[in-house]
Amino acid sequence: MIEIAQIPLILEEIPPKGIHIFIHGKIQRKTIRFLLDTGASKSVIDQDFANRMFPSARRIETEHLTTGLGANIPNAVFLKLRGIKAGKYHLKPITFAVIDLSVVNQAYTSAKLEPVVAILGGDILNKYRAVIDYRQRLLQLLVED
Q1: Dihedral over alpha carbons 29, 33, 37, 42 (to 10 degrees)
Q2: Which residues are 60's β-sheet partners?
Q3: Residue 117: which of 59, 29, 50 has the closest Cα?
Q4: What is the 3-state secondary structure (H, E, C) of 20-58?
Q5: Quick check: 86 and 25 in contact, CB under 8 A?
C-alpha cells in the first residue's frame, strides 16, 4: 500500500538571507538532521561520519569524475545502506556519495548551525516523489507501507 508520508520540515536561516531545509531522521539508530538539497543530483554522506558509523561497510569506487560543492572529485566513492528513516518512515535502499563535507560545515559553524552529515538529493526526492510544502512546513513523500 502506498502512503503519503508527512515529515516536519526544519527551516534554518543561513546568512545572508538564505534558508536551508532539514528533516530529522536516522541512520542506524543515530538521529541526525538531513539537509534537503533539490539542486543536488545525488544524496551525500560526510566522509568522516561514514568512516565512523560504517567502518567495515563496503565502498563502491568508480573512476568517474564527480562534481559537487564547487569542485571536481576524481574516483568517486559510494556507500550503499540498507535504508534510512525519514521521520517515522523507512526509505530503502539508499546509495550515498561519500564526500568530505568539512567546507560546508565550516560555513555552518560560522552561522552557528549544526554540522551536516547527510544530504538528501534529487535521486531520493525524485524516487519518493517529494513535495516540499513551505506553508505547512512539511515534506511529503510517497512511501510503501
Answers
A1: -20
A2: 78
A3: 50
A4: EEEEEEEECCEEEEEEECCCCCCCEEEHHHHHHHCCCCC
A5: yes
Q: How far apart are CA 111 and CA 48, in angstroms?
A: 21
pLDDT in tens, 22-45: 999 999 888 999 999 999 989 999
Q: Find the Cα–Cα–Cα–Cα dihedral 142, 126, 22, 79, rounded to 10°.
A: 110
Rounded distance between C-alpha atoms, residue 33 and residue 2, angstroms: 25
Q: Please provide the average confidence, as pLDDT, over all residues in the chain.
A: 88
pLDDT tens figures, 77-115? 899 888 899 988 999 888 999 999 998 899 889 888 899
* Model-wide pTM > 0.70: yes
Cell numbers given for 83: 535504508
**Residue 134 corresponds to which amino acid?**
Y
Residue 123 DSSP symbol: H
d(CA 103, CA 66): 17
